Structures are given as C-alpha cells and as structure tokens.
Amino acid sequence: MKKILFIIQIIFLSVSFQAIIKADDIRDFEIEGMSIGDSLLKFANEEKIRLSISNQKYPNDKFTIYEADQLVLNKKYDYLTVTTKKNDTKYAITSISGSINYHELDDCLKKKISIQNEIEKIINFNEKEEVEYPAKRDKTGNSIIYGIQYYLKPPPSNEAILINCYHYTEELGVNRNLTISVNKEEFSYFLINEAYK
Fold first, then answer.
1. Is the full-model pTM beyond 0.85?
2. What is the total count of domains within the chain?
C-alpha cells in the first residue's frame, strides 16, 4: 500500500497536508520519509544512529529517543524525533514526532484545528478524543497540553496519531511547540503507563 505523506508547509502560519490515499494503518504514514516499523538503518549507518541518540530520556528507559533530524533532511519542522525499543539491533521505529515552536497559545490552537481538518480528510480512524492535561514534565502542574488523539484501532488499543500544543510555562524554560506524533500501540502504552515511573 502506498504511504500517506505528511507534508507540513509553514507559510504565513498555514499548515497543509498532501494525501495519496485514505489510510487506516499506522504504517501508511510518513513524516519526513520515515514510517512506523522502518529501520533507522534505512536512513543511516549504525555509528551515525548511535551519535543521534538524544540527551532527553524518559525516567523509564525502555525506549530510546533519537534526534532524527541528524539522520534525514528535515525541512518542515524545528525538530524531529523517533524512538526505538532500547537495545533493538534492528532499530525499528516505534514513534515519530515532528515539532514546530510557537509563542502564543491561540496561534497553536488555530494551527491544530487546521491540521485536524486535513487529517480527518485523509485517515480512517476508529475514535477521536480531545484532551487537556498538565504536562508530566512540569512538576508544578502549570504547563498544559492541549491536544487531539486519533485512535486507528478499537479499544483497548492506544495506537494513535496525536496533535498537541505543549504550552509550557516560561519558568520551565522549555520551548512551546505544536507536535504531530505517530505512535505504535506498544509505545503509546509505554507513554501512558510506564514512561514516567
């Protein structure tokens, strides 16, 4: 099956998507040419992959985060990350995230709605859920995530495409960003239940 290409073009704060087909399988999505299940070895040799391991880590290190903009040409995002299971010698991608920095929450929420409208035209999803919750990264509880999650399989699966505005407080010193993530079921479960324990 041909893959859907997620192409974000940031021109005058507009976001657009190009679709080849309407899809319902998480492996049908690409962000900067990468898809869930692809091996990072498709994009770089093992030495370069190891050098791209991010300094950011989850308290539970079951998955490794990579700075994917060191492995592929990234034209559309301020940063691009992928994850694999720790010690996976095949480096199979379990999640892909592209992020765009922003300052004002209203700008991010408008972009998020625009992306939602485009995504709903090109994917078959089982369920969608609007969410708003404190960011686990901020122990004060003052940084809020505003998002939508598109679940591609029936419950109890958490396999999803997410669009989130990470509205961190200025005191936290972390960039506010709009992030589009594609998460394999196993990685989604990890984020919800294990990552911060």
1. no
2. 1
